[in-house]
Each structure stands twice: as structure tokens, then as C-alpha cells.
Amino acid sequence: MPRTPDHSDQLCLPRALLLDFGGVVVETENNPDWQLVFARQLVAEMHTDGIDLLDVVAVERDLRAGAKADSRWKDAMSRPFAPAELRYEQFWADFVAADWPAPALHWVTERARELCRQMGELKQTRRTRVGMIELLDAADAARVPVGIVSNTLMGVVHRDYLDAYGLADRFAAQIYSDEVGVRKPNPQMIVLGAEAVAVPVPDCWYVGDNFDRDALCGARAGVGGNIIMEARDTYDQPYDLAIRPHAIVTDPLEPARAVPRCRRHRPPIADPIHPRVAPSQTRKSMKRTTTRRTGVAALSMLGALALGFSLAGCAPSSAPQAEATGDVEIGIPDDGFTLDKLIAAAKEEDGITVYDSTGKIVDMAEAFSKKYGVKATGVKVEADAQADMVIREGESGNVQGDVILLSDAAEAMGELIPRGYVTSWMPPDKTDVVPADMRDPLVINFSANVWAYNTEAYKTCPVENMWALTTDDWKGRVSLQDPLLKPQDTDFWNQLATHADDEVAAAYKEFFGEDLNTDEDSATAEWVKRLAQNGPLLNKSSDNIAESIGAPGQDKPFFGDIATSKFRENEDSGYKLGLCDTMSPWPGRMYPKVALIAAQTKSPNTAKLFVDYLLTEEGIEPQTSDGKPPVLKGVELPADEASGVSAVLDQLYVTDTSTADKDLDSRQYWQDLWQVNYAG
């Protein structure tokens, strides 16, 4: 068997699909206190058996240490060509209980298999990935068998999940490393999977979520299609790899969305990208270390499979059906509406859960509950995960988030509202305080990003024009969020190209003293290209950007774009952040946060009451204090807001939500433009 077979960039249509489990078939989320829960259980069970030699604190500590040792062992085992899987007894005897008294060590070793099963159940929460059912349906229709090939310490946990959700029969075979004794990237794993579905390895596609275990295993085995599907830890690589998959996709539904865009815009870029990371970032915080797209042909064929070998249509069959509008009436009617009627109706319902990307939502929900006597629970959800959660819950009919406060207006208008997962509601009693152009979808406030500099190094802002950032003076010294990780930058660029390109061109003439000549589609595209070619420092979040700009004691600090909320670090961390109020044409930008209500909520009136509450000074205050300008007429940011953005609010670029759906369609174009030109 060749160690690293050569693959062409052209894929043949598969005769079988082999899928990884965690990250591909299901999404996983670690339960934060599983070690403590399990430690209490173990101590209680040992006590029942007459072993009282360890306390809960010691067992919890060793469970944490064992899990960390196991993780590092897995990283190390992705280097050998044919690694074996860890045995149950080996995990407990070597990684957890090596220093335990002999009776306790013997007790856990004797029960190692069952304890591994219990640990697997406690450690993570699993959810079937959005679009997976549709992919399985398409494979069935095309008579393409699907098998699972997965590393795991306890395959029974995975089998139990599939059984519980009625999915076991959807897979022709399940190959788990603990059951066969070898683990990926050992190519024997894929060989066993191919044999189980009775299809030769070269005629199979393998889809995994890790480069060092999955893509490497696919290459070693010689699969016909080697696909990476992005998941939580995809870009958390333990070491650099030369192996490149045929294609990288974000989820099983992505090809349905990506193929039409690739045909309208430019083809994806095939060269790997290695963004530079701020010095303070650890390997855990670096997410993007390779190309996001590797060929239209690969995506088109995976898209064909996901759509039953047809490029027609892209909405999942189980998606809620609705008109492409936010005007879906739920709860009490707007005719004859009064706040008292809404409150009375809400008191007859169960509580609601509210998703937002800020932790302030917890306090906001508690204050709402106290005010109205109805239950609301605020849950912080990472901004880039909100839309996926809404889709997943909508498809399954198991809606958990009743109100969603989403900072991605493009996703709301281009995907969630048209496909009927959510609706936007404008409270009739608040039309006098919300501008007309902020009502559909309803905008509750704005997040502001501004250009910032280090006030210790510079008495005044050292940059006065956006085009200065494309010159040698700022080569490698601009700190930005990676535009491949979150969409706010690409959406902003499309907004400028659509609504303000003349101003970008005028800024060029103002700075260079001559008219702009470009082969790009717009002045904005030319600026993006030159900025990418100037090698900015790319970061995962505003936290990293704020540190690179504002940390004291720097001779030549970075200049960059950050959220106004990060100016609190001046007091909390001693940073020296200053708002660049002289930047032309705009010192920053504002993008909206929209309030959405799940179409399938069981408490529609409580959800509507919460939205109404957000349109009060009291309701929105916790976010206003963070420098997020509200839409409410007559409500201003507090005088002590840290960034000072109030002084330049009228100079910021404000997102035009009327074309937000076009921003969604254009993301691939801007990402490709960035990738082909990035010089980091």
C-alpha cells in the first residue's frame, strides 16, 4: 500500500461515502463540569464497594489530567503511519489512576470498558449536523451506501446516539477504532470501512473534520475524494501538514449554496493560506491555517450528491415552508394591540430562551423576568454559531431559542427569514421611537467597529486615510480580524462597493493626488486587494486585535479595527487604545443587530413582549453601556462610554439592511479576492 498516494484535483463521483462521526455526522459540545459529575459518581460507587481511599477533589483532578494526557496522546498518534487505538484499561491505568492506591486502581481497571462508556456519555453533548439528514436522503436516492469511520474510545456511545435518534439504519456500516484496534490516520480504518460497504477504496469519498487524522488518513488510503468538513477544532492542528484535501466545505448543505455563487462570481483559490497570528495567540486560538476552498469541480460534485445529483433547489426538505418575508403573524394580532393585552397573553405561556452573542443577555433576561413576572433565560451563543443553531432547531422542530438577537443581518435576510425559520416583528406601540428604515427586519441596536491606535506611541492618530493602510508605511502593521472566520468584514466591503464606492475612489484621489485606475470590479475591491497584499496581521477576535494595538510599551504598535467594547481594556488591562477620529472617509462602521422570533416558538407572546422590552431605554441599556448605539430615538450612549464613539457617530458608515441579502451572496467573492492576494 503506498504511503502517500498522489491525487488529482478532479474527483470522480463516489460509489460510497465514508463519514467521520464527531464533527461530520454530529456536532459535539464539551460539558464543562463532566469531570466533577463523574468524580462524584466514581467515589460513590467505590464507597459502595468498600473503597474509601480517594475524595472527589482528587478524582476530579486526575480525570482532568487524564483527559489532557489523552488529548496529547491523540495528537502524537497522528504522526505514525499505522497507530493502534488506546485500550480501555490503558486509559484508566496509565492516564487517570496511575498513582491511585492499589484497590482503587484495580477497581477502575476491572471496570474500564463500562467506565469509558459512562465517560463518553457524560463528556459531550451531541447534535446531528444541519443538512446531514438531507445528505443521507440524497445518498439513498442515488443508491450510494454511507458508512461511518471514526476514532473513539467507546464506539458504543456513538451507536447508542444513532439508535436513539433513529439513524442507525441509515448507515451501511459503522467502523470504530476501539472495536477494530487501530485508529486514524492508520489507512486500515478506511480500508475496513470500504470493505464493509463493499466498494473499493478508490471509489469512495471520505469526509472528516481534521487534517492530521482524517485528511492524512484519506491520502494514505488512496480514497477517490478526500473532503474536509469544517467543525469546531478543524484548524487546531498539532503540527503543519503538506497533505491537502480535494475540497473543504462548511457543512453538508454548503455545496447547495456555494455552487451557484461560484458560478456567478470567481472560482475559489486553490493555494493554501497561512495567516500570521498575533504573538499572544496560542495554537488553540488559531483557526485558519489552510485554504478554505480547493476547486469548483470538487464542490460542484459534492453539491450534486447533496442534491441528489441535481443542482436544482437548495432548501432542505424538512425546512419550514414560508413566504420570503418576515411578516408571519404569531401570538396576539397587531390589530387592536395594546401592551397590556400582550402582557396578559404572555403570562399564560411558558418561558422563553433568548440567544445573543453577548453575555449581557443573561442580565437582560433576568431584568425582563423581574419586570413582567414571566420567565426568560438569556443564553450567550457565539455569533458565528447562531444561524446554524436556528436552522438545526427549525429543521428538527425542537426549537430552544425563542428570540434570537443576531448581528448577521445578511444571514437573517438571505437565509433565515426567507426559509421560514424566523420572523421579524415590529411592536405597534414602538413605531414612534424606531426609524422606519429600521423596522423590517427590526434592528434593536448597532455594533460599532472603529479604527484604533496606540495613544502611548502616538499623540494623535497616525492614519488619516483608508488608502494609507495599503502603503509601505503600514506594511505588516495593520491588525484585523481574519475575514475568512467571520463575515462582518466581507459584508462591509460589499456594502461599500454597493453604496459608497464613489467615496472610496474619492479617498484614493485625496490621498494619492490622482484618479484611481483599476482592473478590479470596484474601487473597494482594489482597496481590499492592496490591503491583503500589504500583509496585515490576522486575528480570531477583537481581543487579540485590541492587545496588538493597545498593549503598552510598544515602539511600533499595530493600527487596526476593533469593536468599541474593547476600549474597556484601557481600564481593565492598562491598554492605550485611542479612537482614530480623523480617518477618512469613515473612522469606523456600524452593523445592525436584528431581533428575530422563532417561527415555531411555543411562547410567541412572551417572545414578542421581550422584543417590545428591548425597544425601551431600560431594556437595551446593558448593551448601550458597551458602546452599542441603540436605534431608539432620543436615547444616547452614556457619557462615560469608554471608546468615545458618540463624538463620531454621524461619521460612521451605517449598514444598509435593504441589500443585506446581497452581502450574503457576495461573501465567497470577497473571500476569494482576499485569499488570492493575501501576503501574510
From TrEMBL:
The keyword Signal applies. Residues 265-291 are annotated as: Disordered. Keywords: Signal. InterPro entries: HAD-like_sf (IPR036412), HAD_sf (IPR023214). It holds the Pfam family SBP_bac_11. PANTHER family: ABC TRANSPORTER SUBSTRATE-BINDING PROTEIN (PTHR30006:SF2), THIAMINE-BINDING PERIPLASMIC PROTEIN-RELATED (PTHR30006). This is Extracellular solute-binding protein.
